[in-house]
Amino acid sequence: MKAFEATKQFFTSAADKLQLDESMRILLLTPKREVQVQVPVEMDDGQLVTLIGYRVQHDNARGPFKGGLRYHPDVDLDEVRSLASLMTWKTAVVNIPYGGAKGGIAVDPRQRTRRELERITRTFIDQIHDIIGPDKDIPAPDMGTNSDVMAWIMSQYSKYHGFSPGVVTSKPVEHFGIPGREEATGREVGILTMKLIGRLGRRPKETRIAIQGFGNVGLHAAKLLAESDFKVVAISDLTGAYYSPNGLDIGNAIRHTLANQGTLAGYTGGDRITNEQLLSLDVEVLIPAAIGGVIHAENVGQVKAPIIIEAANSPVRPEADAVLEERGTVVLPDILANAGGVTASYFEWVQNRQYYRWGLDRVRQELDAVLSRAFEDVWHESRQHDVSLRVGAFMLAIRRVCRATELEGY
Ligand code: NAD
C-alpha cells in the first residue's frame, strides 16, 4: 500500500463517522500545492548532479503550512504528500495555528559531505523561497536533516527576504532556536504515555515498556518514563535490541549511546534480542519510535502489548490497525503521540516573531499544557463517539479543519 493510501484510509474512517459529504472530503484530501523542483549541484569532485526536491503544501485553513524536510534516497512525491496531510491533522489535533506541509530531496545525506549538503540546501531554497516564509510555510527537520540544515535555510531565505528567523524551526539553540526542542517529542511521548496509563487505571511500577528506536524520540521517552518509575524492559536501534525482564538501567544506556556515536552497539546491560522479537514481547506498553510500517499484517498476530504508543510516524499499517482494534488494543495515534515536536516548533516560531526568549521551564510547562489538553480532547471525542483514539483524533482534527475552511470561505 502506498503511503498516501494509508493516511487516506484513516481519514476515511473518521470522515464516515462524521458523515462528511463527498465534496468536502475531496477538498480536504487534495493538497493545495505540490511543487517539484530541479536541484542542480556541483559536488566536491566537480561533478554536476541534478537532484529532485519536493514541497507539498496540504492545507492552510488554520494557519501557515508547517512541516519537515526529509533528505533520503527513497523520498518521492507520494511519501511527501502523505506526510504533508498527516501534518495538517497533527497541528489540528493539538490546536496550534498551523496547517500541514512536508518536503524532501531524494538524496542520501550519508553519502554527501557537509559542504555538499549545504550547497544542496541553499540551491533548494533558491528554487522554493517564494512559496515559503514565516507567514506562508515554515519547514523543520525530518529524517536526514538537522538544526544545521535549518540554519542554512534561514540564511538563504534571509538573503532574498531580509532577516527572517521565523522561516524555519528547530534551529540551533544559540542561533534563534529554543531550549527543550530536542527533547520535546520524546518527552511528550512519555507525558502522554503516563496520562493514558493513568486513565486506564494502571500503575507505573507495574507497567513494563518496550521501546523500538533509541534515537532522539526513543531516548527521551525512555528517560522520562524510567525516571517516572516505569519499567523500561527493552530498547533497540539499528544495531539490535536489548532486553531485561526486570527493567533496564536507562541512564546507563544513554551514557553508553553518547559515548558510542549515538548507537547501542556493544551495550551489555540486557540480553540481545532482535528488533522483531522486541515487537512481540510480553509487555504492557509497546512504543515504536524508529520508522514507519513496522507493525503490519504479517507480524501483528505476534504483538502482545495491550497498549501501543505511536511515537514514530505511521508505525502501524492500516490492515494491522484493524486487527489491533478488533482485539481491543489501545493505540495512541501518531498525530497526537508525537506532536510534542511540532508544538515546540510553534513555540520557537512565536519567540522568533517576538524577538523574545523563554527558558526551558516555560517551554516544558507550555508543552505539557498543550499536549495534555489535546489528550483530554481526543479521549473525550473517542468516548463520546465510541471509537478508537485514532478515529477520535482524526474526527477532532477534520472537524477543526472543516470549520476553519468554512469560516474562511472557498
Ligand atoms: P533518529 O534518527 O534520531 O532515531 C531513529 C532510531 O531508530 C535510531 O536509534 C535508529 O538506529 C533506529 N532505527 C532505525 N531503523 C530501525 C529499524 N529498522 N529497526 C530498529 N531501529 C531502527 O530519529 P527520531 O528523530 O528519533 O525519529 C524517530 C521517529 O519519530 C521517526 O519516525 C520520525 O519521523 C518520528 N518523529 C520524530 C520527531 C522528532 O521531533 N524527532 C517528531 C515527530 C515524529
Task: Tell me about this structure.
With 410 residues, the protein is an alpha/beta fold. It folds into three domains: 32-175, Leucine Dehydrogenase, chain A, domain 1 (Rossmann fold, 3-Layer(aba) Sandwich); 182-337, Rossmann fold (3-Layer(aba) Sandwich), CATH 3.40.50; 358-408. It is built from 14 helices and twelve strands. Strands 9-8-7-6-10-11-12 form a seven-stranded mixed beta sheet, sandwiched between helices. The protein has a five-stranded mixed beta sheet with strand order 1-2-4-3-5. It is globular, with a radius of gyration of 21 Å. The model has no long low-confidence stretch (mean pLDDT 96). Nicotinamide-adenine-dinucleotide (NAD) binds next to helix 7 and strand 7. Nicotinamide-adenine-dinucleotide (NAD) binds at residues 185, 212-218, 236-238, 275, 289-292, 311-313, 338, 341.
Q: How are the SSEs ordered, and which strands pair?
A:
Blueprint (H helix, E strand, L loop, with lengths): L2 H15 L4 H8 L3 E10 L5 E12 L5 E7 L5 H17 L6 E6 L8 H15 L8 E5 L5 H15 L19 H19 L8 E5 L3 H12 L3 E7 L2 E4 L6 H9 L12 E3 L1 H5 L5 E4 L18 E3 L8 H10 L2 E3 L1 H4 L2 H15 L5 H26 L3 H20 L2
Parallel strand pairs: 3-4, 3-5, 6-7, 6-10, 10-11, 11-12
Antiparallel strand pairs: 1-2, 2-4, 7-8, 8-9
Helix pairs in contact: 1-3, 1-14, 3-14, 4-5, 6-7, 6-12, 6-13, 12-13, 13-14
The structure holds nicotinamide-adenine-dinucleotide.
The site of nicotinamide-adenine-dinucleotide has 21 residues, from helix 7 and strand 7.
